[in-house]
Predict the structure of Pentatricopeptide repeat protein.
Amino acid sequence: MPPRVFSLDLSRTSYVCQSCLTNLQRPSSQQLLTRSYAHATRKAPQPRYPPTPRKLRHAPAAAPQPQPSPQDFQKALLQAQTEDALELPETAALDDAGRPISVRYYNEDEAGQYRQLRDGSEFGSISGGLDSEIETAINDLEQQMVNTMQMLKRMEQEGNQDKADELRKQFKKTLREKYKGKTGPEAEEYGLLRIPGFSGVRQRAVANLNRFLARESVVKGGVPKPKDLVECWKFYSAARAALATNWSSVPREAWDFLWMILSYEGAENPNRMRRIYILARDMRAAGLTLRDSQQLLAIEAMFIEGWQGEAIEAWKKAVITLGSKPDVFRSYWELGIRMCCLHGDTDRALRAADTLLSSPAQDANPRILIPIIRALAAKETTHEQAWDSYQRLRELLGDEMQIEDYDEIIAAFLSSNRVEYGLQSFVDMMFSGAVDIRGRTKLPHQVGNHFFIGKWLKRLIGAGDLDGAYKVVVYLQSKGVVASPIQLNGLIGAWLRSETAENLEKAEKLAWDMIRSRLSYVRLRQREAAMEPSVHLYDPGNRITPTTQGTDASEFVCATRASAETFSLMAENYSVRGLHDRLQELWGVLEAAEIGTNSFMMNQLMRSYTQNGQAQEAVAFYQTMTQERGIKPDAHTFLALFNTLSVNRLLQRDTELAVLDAINGRKHFNDMVHADWSFDSVETFAILPRTVLFSMLKAKDFTGMIIAARAMKELFAFTPPEALLIELAAGTATLRVKTKRNMERIMEGSKTIESLIRRHRREVGYEGGALTAEQKGEELGAVLEQLVLIKAGAQDADPKEVRPLLEATARDMGVYEVVVARDPVVIARRKKVVRRDDGDE
């Protein structure tokens, strides 16, 4: 509801609203803004509550003209910039006697109550929907223009006409630069934007939209920020209901500006088409004619939003208006081709492609045939047309056909189960069309080999087309080419890494098909061994012929035999998913498949036992496999062993179990030192020593911890990093957990380590300067031992009393010759080295 002005006080000075000021201005022959000016006559003050409160009452002058909008101001400003002179009438905020006029404003709310407004800014905001910031900016601009024009007049009166003309030109340039508005991505300029005609508290949503449109930071530099995209739709969608009552009040500049933001194409605008569809519908409701590019985008948005038939009809109706214009010719026909292909109207798509590609005046891209190929290949009756369109594409592109084009064509044929066409396309890419495999029962030797097929499968798997790769495997086996275990293991691994239920099921099915093929081969080999040496039985997996397999994936019987990697992939997957029963079943099948067991499978089953709450079974399984089956353990085996300790499994510590952990931890360390293994990665080198030290710390085996650190220094070349010392001092397994308690413990641990370092340096007479790597290692090792003594409460113990305990522990852990006797032969024999990928140690 508009505000009510109930009284005029001629004895005070205050701000005069724009409408009143308009009526109080003296008329002028040249006016910058579209306003009517009239002299005000002095009247006696009005009573506080007038008899007609629902009428807006100002000074008893002529009826006030509507307040100009920013668009009016902008038009007037542009008009003034083209004139020879800029003049403004002098403001007359005084009565006829020369006294200032003060105006008080009131507003009537919905309940009929009247509230006095603070000032003219609040009056302008409520009455015209113009927020105070915009109003203040306009008033400031007006005042600057008045002052400038007065200065220019004085200069002209004083005879400085040339100087005045020069300053007037400079003033015009400054106005253009300062108020040029926003610039869109296509260099279109937008001035001061505002939607007038919506005022009052009920139109707050429109006021919020106006504030957004006036924000200087919006689309600065031509590219909207993610915040602009979100807030633009937020404010516009909230204001739609109010704007729908008077669409004609929205200026064309505002529509274009909203379109420019909401149609921005990028990852920051995921709902782009949905918003464009709604915006285009609103613009049509407002009676606006969309520009050519806007029409095309609106049709595309309509199609994507589900109105496919209507969008195609709209596209067909625009053939005269858009289909013949050079600026949008190519975009129009390409849009129609894509829509018709998705809608299944391939005949119309082909006709549109002919029109586009046969036009000599347009730079048509032959790649528009790719969606046509995809649509034709999907139909049983048109796949030959798809192949013809592919040949046409190759002819039009010639040497410009890229690998990415072939990838799209191959994916189109494979997705529609046209594997032969897909293979031929890949062969064309590799041999430039010199080899033809279509219709052949047996593939030529250039194609029908593991090397060539492996390259194709690797490319498909790398591109994420896993279903297409599987179809290739099925097709090739029907042509007598059996995929190698390495190739199928790559496909199984890719399926497992995707972690989707469907792909996990596919991976498991293919893996067990390969396992069954392996079991069939083993049974056949056992039967051959039981017969005379000259008898050889038929091996379908090794001597498959092109006629023994079909191309239907549902009837596919995999002839590729599982390898140790196949079992390892499934073992790791079952272990991660906690499928202990399936892992045990897999282990039993591994023995039946007569594939040598390895440490990887053993480690997975040990982890599975531990996760299943069967730590003792995990240790017993380790002992059986290493002692009876001869499996050589590795670093991961001992990680799994130390993780069987209760201090690493249980959240609640058990004193009795901790005592057993100290005993078992020493046994595991003894096995680790005496086993023949070496580190296979830097990651394992960082994890294993840390696990050993933390396990003994939590089990309170302090002497074992000191001996383990000394032994790992000799055998692993391990020096505890400072971060690990802080973790051990704080008693926390990680520095990354940012809880309050954990941070407090870390701070205390840091202070402890810093204090121990300073103490050690005083003891060794450190005189400053940088430490060598050897000196730093000695320092950190000494700090670790001092920290262990503090944890044990023996920091003041006599070293002579501690030495016998350490020697006994060294014997118990099997490293007496390493840390006490320091036998170089024993150290060299038991030393573990880090094996890098390049083969160096």
